Amino acid sequence: MDIWFISIHISTLMIVLLLVDILKKYKKNNVHLIFLLMILCLFVWSIGRILEKYFLIYTGRMIEGFSYIYFTSIIFLPVCVLFAGLIIEGKKISYKHMLLIVPQVVSMVFLLTNHFHRLFIVVNTEYNSTSIYGFYFYIHSLISYIYIILGIYFMVRFSIKNSSLFSIKTMIILIGMLPVLLVNIIGTLNIFDMHFNSTPVAFVILTTCFYIANVKFEFFNLVPLAMGNIVNEISDCFVVVDTENVIIDFNEPLKKVFGNVIDIKRNIIISDIKPKYKGFYTHIQMIAELIKRSHDEKKTFFVDKHIEVENVFNRYFSIEVTPVIKKETVKGTIVLFKDITELKNTQSQLVAKEKLASLGQLTGGIAHSLKTPIASIGDSVELLDRYINEYDESIDEAAVTNEDHHEIAKDMKGCVKEIQFIINYMSEIISTVKNYSTDAQIGGSDRFSIKELKDTLLVLLNHELKRHNCKLNISLNIEDRILINGDIRNMLQVINVLISNAIESYSNKANGVVEFMVNLDSQDNIIISVKDFGKGIPLDIQNKLFNKMCTTKGIKGTGIGLYISKNIIEGEFNGKLTFESEEGIGSTFYIIIPGKNIERI
């Protein structure tokens, strides 16, 4: 027996071992099935060659039927290699891909009808120097080489993308690929005499290398395959950089979202990204600085950023910068961009709705506050008109004395004074409302006293309290000379939300009581509390009460009042907004203003 005959036996044994091991270890999925088809093709090829050789030894002649067996495997093995590469690359095999089998089917037809035309095989021997092939065989070989090269290319590209060019698994695949390429090039160009068994042996080496890369280094692991598909399907964008801020990878959504404003490429430093518009450069620098901080401090940073560039880009992103740490060493950084533009727009709509609700409440308070004084003015004007008529009629009467005229004039002056008093009262109400309703930005430098706060609240909430049959008990245990730094309009907005919620906690029941208290603790912190004795807050709501969209009012609530209130207290007054609540007992909300944010005059 020659060396090639021994090698084909060894190769066949290896194929059987691979086949048994794979069937024992793996579940049936696309990668698994196509890998099995490759091994089965090699098994049929090897068995066909072995049987042909044994018949030649014992009968002295070549049986053409055996060549048909292993040539069938030769025909379909290249398309299996191509499909394996496509599947590993993450491509979804569709009906269009099935067209790739058509040339192989045509080759199969030429093989089965070969004895009529000899266009596939003319003379078949064990060595390429003595074998003669027909015209179509070379067409088939060209297509097969293209399939094999493309399949191996996809596998190598996948390996490089998920590790690197010089990774162990990439090198193993390249080593397995070399014998196949060399054998096929030598055989096709007839560089020197080569045994026909060298080709299946080369493919067995390639398959074995794939198997080692899979078993030892999880080359065919479906997790990275699935992740590769997922990261390109999700809407969130991400970019991965190494410790030198060089871009290693990014997903397709990132390119789609930012492609019209930046020219992003792999293997460039993130600060070297070329923006297509000058306005985008500051945003790139901001990301680079966040990455540096993440590297230096070894922790994740979150930031909400509005990125606007001229008239071509206007989006809001929640950006998460996370260091990749292995054995306490930073290996790189993942930057995730979550598009929250729609959420921001929705939030703006909710804020507008909340403002409209407050405006409606404010309008009701104004109407109620002005209704009584307007009615009083009407009564005074009517009385003044009567006095004028009485005075006019008394002019020509001899019985009317000067004292009577003075008395009538005195009554008229009384009506005028009452009208003036009511007008002044109405002017104060209008000024209060004007001060409250004027737009204010968080971060103002105004100051206000608790008395000012109380007086304005009474005007704004008087109508709301009466409409719901509620009573507001006010207890101010604080000096008038103490001032709070900040804009009174923002504090009014917060307390308005708290008292309105307290009123609604009684579910329109009569005789509800709301307690508004202001105290100064031992550390000079101002404690403003709003307490009710209503239905309380459910336990499952309490831990997320200050979240956006959280409401206990159903469709009547926006779920953003307390969220905005908390931001105002923390953002402008450097304070805290907390609460205590028990179902069926009631709730108390506390606004804690630190001593450093107050002044004494």
Q: What is the count of helical runs?
A: 17
CATH class of the largest domain: Mainly Alpha
| CA-based shape | rod-shaped
SS elements, strand count = 17
- Which parts are unreliable, with pLDDT below 50 for 5 consecutive residues or more? 219-227, 439-445, 554-559
Number of domains: 4
**CATH topology tier name of the largest domain:** Rhopdopsin 7-helix transmembrane proteins
Distance between the termini: 111 Å
Instruction: Give me the side-by-side strand order of the main sheet.
Output: 4-3-9-8-7
Helix content: 55-70%
CATH superfamily of the largest domain: Rhodopsin 7-helix transmembrane proteins
Architecture of the largest domain in CATH?
A: Up-down Bundle
The assigned structural class equals: alpha+beta
Estimate what percentage of residues fall within beta strands.
Answer: 15-25%
Residue-averaged pLDDT: 77
What does this structure look like?
By secondary structure, the protein is α+β, with helices and mostly antiparallel strands. The protein has 17 helices and 17 strands. It has helices at residues 3-25, 30-59, 64-89, 102-112, 114-117, 135-162, 168-189, 198-217, 222-233, 252-258, 281-297, 341-394, 402-437, 450-467, 488-504, 539-542, 561-571; strands at residues 121-123, 132-133, 237-242, 247-250, 262-263, 274-275, 301-309, 313-326, 329-339, 447-449, 470-477, 482-485, 512-520, 526-532, 576-582, 586-593, 598-600. The protein has a five-stranded antiparallel beta sheet with strand order 4-3-9-8-7, with helices on both faces. Strands 11-13-14-16-15 form a five-stranded mixed beta sheet. A three-stranded antiparallel beta sheet has the order 10-12-17. Helix 1 (3-25) packs parallel to helix 8 (198-217) and helix 12 packs across helix 14. The N and C termini lie far apart (111 Å). 26% of the residues are buried. Mean pLDDT is 77; it is low at 219-227, 439-445 and 554-559.
